[in-house]
Structures are given as C-alpha cells and as structure tokens.
Amino acid sequence: MADNERMEKLVSLAKRRGFVFQSSEIYGGLGSVWDYGPLGVELKRNVKDRWWKAMVHARDDIEGLDAGILMSPRVWEASGHVAGFSDPLVDCKHCKQRFRGDDPRIKGTPGQPDAQCPACGTRGSLTAPRLFNLMFKTFMGPVEEDAAVVYLRPETAQGIYVNYLNVLQGSRQKIPFGIAQIGKAFRNEITPGNFIFRTREFEQMEMQFFVRPGTDEEWFEFWRHERMRWHVGLGLRAERLRFHRHEPGELAHYAKAAYDIEYEFPFGWNEFEGIHNRTDFDLSRHQQASGKKLEYFDQERNERWLPYIVETSVGADRTALALLCDAYAEEQVEGETRVVLRLQPALAPIKAAVLPLVKKDGMPEIAKRIYDGLRGRFTAFYDDGGSIGRRYRRQDEAGTPFAITVDGQTTQDGTVTVRHRDTLAQDRVAADALAAYLAERLEA
Ligand code: ATP
C-alpha cells in the first residue's frame, strides 16, 4: 500500500469509526483544528493517563501541575516568544498562497524575479520573507486595546517555570525534581497539515526537570533514554522510532542540547517528542523580567543557584497519530480484506464488545447482563445489530481486543466465547470469570 493511500485510509477510518472529526465540519471546517469523537477521546485519554502514571504517580521526584492557558503577557516577553516565536513567511502575489520561507519547494530567492511559486509556478510573484508570530492573541477585559492583549499559550512549559518555587515549597521536594503538566497549547501554524500531526490547537504533555548546574548533561541523557523507553512500551515498533540530534545550527535559542524522538509516519520521519537541555535560560529570563529571585537554596552545600532545566515535551495528538499509524493493518482472511487496529489492549478505546450471536432465544438478555457487569470496570460496548461477522469487523476497525459472544451454549452452561482481535483465536470462558480473565490480559 502506498504511504499516501495508507494515510487516506486512516483518516477515513478515523472519521467513520468516530476517532477524529474535522472541526465545524457542517460549516466547511476550520483549518487544522480537529475534534476527537467517542473512540478518539478514549485513545487520547489512555495516552495521557499512561504518561501521567509514568511521569507523576510512579516517581517520587515529580509533581503535577495544571496552570492556566492565559498568562501575564509579560511571561511571553520574558520567554522570548513575543520577539522570537515567528517564522518567515512568503506570499505569492499571483495565486495568494502562503509558504514558509524555508519551503524546499521554492526555487530561487523569494522577493527576487527568479523565484518561482511552488503552487502556481509563476516567476517573480513571491514576496520577500516576512516574520509572522505564531501566538494567538486575544483581549482580556471589556476593552479591545493593545494594553489588554493576552496570548493563548503556545507551550505549557512557561506555566511550570513561573510556578516552580510554589511547587517546591508546597511539596517539600528537593532538587533534582520535576514538574509535569498536560494541557492545551495553541500555535497559529502557517503550514499545518497531515491530519492531527500539525494543528493549531493541540495538547502537550510536558515535564520540566530541575537540576543542579553541572549535573544537567547526565540528566539529559537519562531523560532522553527514559522517554524512548516509554514510547517503545506503548507498543510502537522500534524500527519506526529514532533519535534526531540537533546540530549546533539547529538548536532553539534556549537550548544547549536537544534530541527529537522521531516516528516514521506514512508521510516520513517526523518529531513527536523533544528533549531539551534548556540550561537556566528560562529561569534567568523570568528572574530578570519579574524582579523576583528564583534561585534555589541548596542546604547541603549552603549555596544559592539557578537550577538548570531538562525538558521532555511530547504531543498527545502526535502520539495518538503515531499509535494509529502503527496499529493500522489490512489482511486477507477467507478471501476478504480485514482492517484491524492492532492497538495495545491497554490503549484500545473499547476493551470488550459483548455480542449476542442472534437476537433471540434469550441471548440478548444474557449479553446485556454481561455487558452491565463489565462496564464501569472496562470500557465495554454492546452490539446486537447485523450479522456476527459484520459486528466483528466493526470491532476490529475500532481496535477492540476482545469480542465476547453469547451463543446457544451460553444458555446451556453459562460459558461465552472470547475472540481475540489479533490472532482470531477463540477461548471458551465462564461468563462469571470474564472480568478476571480480561483484567489479567489487560494488565499483562
Ligand atoms: P515542529 O518543528 O514539528 O513544529 P516544534 O519543534 O515546534 O515542532 P516543540 O515546540 O518542541 O515542537 O513542541 C513539543 C511537541 O509538541 C512536539 O514534539 C509535538 O509533539 C507537539 N507539537 C508542537 N507543535 C504542534 C502542532 N502544531 N500540532 C500538534 N502537536 C504539536
């Protein structure tokens, strides 16, 4: 299957099965904003829960935080986002399309007569690159004036920096320690696209680890390997994961060292997590701009210093997309094409589907009872519409790992069949042992 065909099929499955819809679709859609449907919201929630458990609950040196999306505009001046968070943009005066200044499809130098528009092919129609700020602006309070401008945060990290002393005091942590946060971020991306890969509203899962200067390189190494291990643990194929080390010319203004974790999406290798050694850049900028001391007092050494920060920043949406791309499979079964999402069972939106073989002989009633017993503990789904084969196929496409069928034998001996999504093997299990059977396999 060609890569673009694979992507098209995935987008169409995502809509058909209720994973992801285009925002405001009945009005023609809103550019690069997507809505998560019933299955998508479960998948993304499972990703976020997994991250929170690994980063916050399983560790005693990381605390959670949920800061506001709106912050003082001075935060973004100090962080460098007002001045520097911009991409050079080129417009075509002929076809009115807009490109990034570094778009590899542009031939020649934009602004010069020889430059050629990559869309309409016109020569000399491209403007010289102009800077364009990626932050969304809005107004706070009743008057829409410059003094009332606030920004939608373009990253969650700054909410952590400005709160680090609050968290430190309240939690009795000592450096080294970290603060983790999951939340929405907004960027007015110029060239969004590739479905939920680059969007204008997205969710980040960020952790900032505060360390003593001089120990930062060690922690940086620790965290980049730890984060790669986490992705492998999600079931993503190891051969589709790699590190990309930023060369000196590529590094962001705040970073001393950076690695991206990349996944091989159908549209190529692309970043979905960044690990950065941000040094004391952020805290020193905030200390200077706010006039508030942000130093840490190291009791053991009897010294004051500004901590260095190692950041791990991963997109919940890009992780969900990587999981969907990795899981999508088509195979031939008995002369038919079976589409199946081979998501790790613990990440699957629905864990168990309960299906009466036929809609008579007491089977729906038994199946309903089983379904009622399971939901609340597992995400379960009841379906008695259409042939059993069609119902299995619907669950395969949703990535449901276990399909539980109530048949004639159930009415005799109280057992059901459990069909496994990946192997198509069928086990006979006593209905009252189902919860334990599923729990064991979902925790495995
Ligand atoms: P890119 O170069 O792809 O725009 P970036 O280097 O600007 O990404 P970071 O600022 O390091 O990204 O953000 C960390 C993570 O947040 C990214 O790895 C990605 O998973 C997520 N992210 C950033 N921008 C977007 C976006 N527009 N849509 C979806 N996720 C995003």
Q: What does this entry look like structurally?
A:
- This protein has about 450 residues and is of the alpha+beta class.
- It has 3 domains: about 5-75 and about 135-325, BirA Bifunctional Protein, domain 2 (2-Layer Sandwich), CATH 3.30.930.10; about 85-135, no CATH class; about 350-444, Anticodon-binding domain (Rossmann fold, 3-Layer(aba) Sandwich).
- The chain has helices at about 5-15, 40-55, 75-80, 80-85, 155-160, 165-170, 215-235, 280-290, 315-325, 365-375, 390-400, 410-415, 435-444, and strands spanning about 20, 35, 60-65, 85-90, 100, 130-135, 135-140, 150, 175-185, 200-210, 240-245, 255-265, 270-280, 295-300, 305, 310-315, 330-335, 335-340, 350-355, 380, 400-405, 415-420, 425-430.
- Helix 2 crosses helix 9 (about 315-325) and helix 3 packs across helix 8.
- It is globular, with a radius of gyration of 26 Å.
- The protein starts with a helix and ends with a helix.
- The structure holds adenosine-5'-triphosphate.
Question: What are the segments in which pLDDT stays under 50 over at least 5 consecutive residues?
Answer: none
**Ligands bound here?**
adenosine-5'-triphosphate
* CATH architecture designation of the largest domain: 2-Layer Sandwich
Distance between the termini: 32 Å
Number of structural units classed as domains: 3
Number of DSSP E strands: 23
Q: DSSP strand (E) fraction?
A: 25-35%
Estimate the mean pLDDT confidence: 94
Strand order, sheet with most strands: 3-9-10-16-13-12-11
Shape: globular
Structural class: alpha+beta
- Regarding quaternary structure, how should these chains be classified? single chain
Helix count, DSSP H or I runs of 4 or more residues: 13
Would you identify the CATH H-level superfamily of the largest domain?
Bira Bifunctional Protein, Domain 2
The proportion of residues forming helix, as a percent range, comes to 25-40%
CATH topological fold name of the largest domain: BirA Bifunctional Protein, domain 2
